[in-house]
Amino acid sequence: MGNVLGSPKGTALEPRLEPDPIIPEPYLSPGNRTLGFLFDDHQKAYPINWSWDMGIPDKHIDETWVTIMLGSGLRLDGAGGKTPYVTLWDDEGKRVGQHWPADDAQLWNNDKLSDKTFKIQHAHARDKMVTAKYVMISLFDGDGLCLSAVQVSNGLESTTWYGDMGQYCGMQWYLSERKLGHDLPAPKCVWLATDLGYSSSLHWHVPDVYGTKSKLAGYLMDQQKYMCHSTPRFAEWRGLTADGIIPFFRPVLQYEVDAETGLPGRDKTPEDAVDKIQWNKNANRFPSPHFGRSLPSTTQNETQTSSSRKRGFNPNTGHLIITEQEGHEASLVCNSTTSYGWDVVSLRERKYCDMTVRKLYHLCDSGRQENCFDVDKEKLVGKGGINARGEVSLLGVPEKRYTSRTHWKDGV
Fold first, then answer.
1. CA contacts within 13 A on the Cβ side of 301
2. 237 and 84 in contact (C-beta within 8 Å)?
3. Is 19 inside a domain boundary?
4. Is the distance from CB of 210 to CB of 262 less than 8 angstroms?
5. 128 with 270, same domain?
6. Is residue 388 part of a domain?
7. Are 36 and 160 part of one and the same domain?
8. Region Disordered: what ranges (predicted)?
9. N or C: lower Cβ tally within 10 Å for the chain?
10. Which domain, by its residues, includes 130?
């Protein structure tokens, strides 16, 4: 991968190149000051209250704090990857401010969200107290990042976007160990990467990620249409630079007021948000409308090397995840056409997913000793089972040798 694009000195606080000493913090400091939404087992949006209160100013201020929560990683206490760029606009499409990271700035994959809160000055805005309405996260170099959540606040308005929305709308995704709190779920995470043809940027319209009863009722009339076929509302991009210009709503969307919260509810005219044209998602700077056949996106097979093709949908075939958590069913990633991640064993579901080929197997037990995955031996067992000497009969697929493993336990 190439070097990070040249950039002016950032106006936001830069994270240190090395992680801070571990200072005890509440587990993700869960609060309830933002109302967003996740998706249930039936892919239906439902509201969730959560916030990281240290990332919310005590009053309305002249900057925007953006807190990024990472999801999956080989080790959740290691480096997630390069720090991404963050770009903000107001509802008129005027740039508010940007975070330009140092070339060697790393986003550490741990629960310490204070290392991942970027305080972005409103350097581009005439009105310094403006509230950002569009947010774009961009990655141009380094290892891929899997985003679980992004909290945005200027003290006046606070929202959280979750990776579930990206997964629902077709982004590459994976499970994440990182829960929002002890009794709260773990959002799915979506990949930003500079290779493999995956998305390098994503953006969303801030007022549209409120999980109010009225707004979700509007979405549920046709979730795919009103969430995913509205490019200004949410979109992934495969090459849009940090100085690129996203599509904006013209005119500015109007919302009903949610009766329970006073926050933005459903669109007054829902069809105004739906795309009337197709956008070139491969654009670098200015996405242009495309009339006629959709422009094809770069596919994984076109950009993969020979070795990466052997990995299939798995970034590291030598790593195994064993999870006890609810919502981490192996069948979720195996049955998805957009999942990308490591082989996984779900002890709760009693199944194993070979992510190289997205093939699902039962776990071996006293009642099933053939054509299954043996957790203790970390091997697929074929029709002959395991003989008296403990030798495994393979299924006729390449044998995997796991050199590392992660155990995601239930609870905190």
1. 0
2. no
3. no
4. no
5. yes
6. yes
7. yes
8. 1-22, 282-316
9. C
10. 30-290
Q: Are residues 97 and 141 in the same domain?
A: yes
Here the tokens at position 283 are 């654009």
**Do 242 and 391 fall into the same domain?**
no
How do 379-381 and 85-89 pair as beta strands? unpaired
Q: Which residue has the higher pLDDT, 284 or 39?
A: 39
H-run or E-run covering 217: helix 213-219
In the structure encoding, which two tokens stand for residue 382, read together? Answer: 């074929």
DSSP 118: E
In a domain, 1, yes or no: no
Give pTM, 2 decimals.
Answer: 0.86
> Within this chain, do residues 397 and 256 fall inside the same structural domain, yes or no?
no
Of 95, 221, 232, 69, nearest to 151 by C-alpha is 69
Pair 136, 201: CB distance under 8 Å? yes
Query: Which residue's entry shows tokens 């330009």?
Result: 100
Distance of CA 312 to the CA centre of its chain: 20
**pLDDT score for 141:** 79
Total domains in the chain come to: 2
Distance CA 279, CA 283 (A): 9
Q: Which residues contact 389 (CB under 8 A, 6 or more apart)?
A: none
The span from the CA of 369 to the CA of 344, in Å, is 19
The predicted structure's pLDDT at residue 393:
57
Q: How far apart are CA 75 and CA 364, in angstroms?
A: 27
Q: Is the peptide bond before 47 cis (omega within 30 degrees of 0)?
A: no
| Closest C-alpha to 338, from 181, 205, 228 | 228
Query: Which residue carries 């795919």 as its tokens?
Result: 224
Ordered DSSP codes for 129-196: TPPP-EEEEE--SSS-EEEEEEEEE-SS-EEEEEHHHHHHTT--EE--S--SBTTB----EEEE-SST
pLDDT tier at 374 (50, 70, 90 boundaries)?
very high
Q: For residue 269, give both structure tokens.
A: 């005219």
Are residues 322 and 275 part of one domain? no
Domain annotation covers residue 16? no
CA 287 vs. chain centroid, Å, equals 22
Smallest CA-to-CA distance from 412 within 29, 140, 73 is with 29
